[in-house]
Amino acid sequence: MGISVFPAPAAGKVSYKLSLTSGSSYTVPAGVTSLNVTLIGGGGGGASFHTSANNGSAGGTTTMTGATSASGGAGGISGIQNSNVGGAGGTNSTGDGGEGGLIQIAGTNSGYAGLKRGANGAQVSSIISTTPGSSISYSIGAGGGGAQAGAGGAGRIDVEYWV
Fold first, then answer.
1. Helix, strand or coil for residue 100?
2. More confident: 52 or 47
3. Does residue 17 form part of some domain?
4. CA end-to-end span of the chain
5. Whole domain around residue 155: which residue ranges?
6. Is the pTM of this model over 0.70?
7. Under 8 Å CB-to-CB from 11, ≥6 apart: which residues?
């Protein structure tokens, strides 16, 4: 199955790719009239095995002027009432949900990432018509907070263009 790119790059042009993970504006390079962008929302935070007070929070929405926004992932939901407090979950890559916390069971720590993991941020691709040298505003979605568990990863914007 072939992949179509619109607009198709002209012969002899070079493809450039970069990821925006911070900041709030992007300056369009000289000679560039369109950008292919992929927005990724922040990942939801993980939850521990404890009470509903230990649900993870949702990740933030990633936006860019002219592109479709990508919503953040939902936070993990604590599954059962338990007197044992969850431990910290793992660190996550950009846009991924936080890992669930650990629960103490019969003296051993058991990882429980399945139901307690925060959801990954949405991933949305758009094509933006641009003017060379113009500035495009954007906002990177923050990762959701983990409740005694791993925080979600922050979002990002992947940009591709041809010169």
1. coil
2. 47
3. no
4. 26
5. 44-163
6. yes
7. none
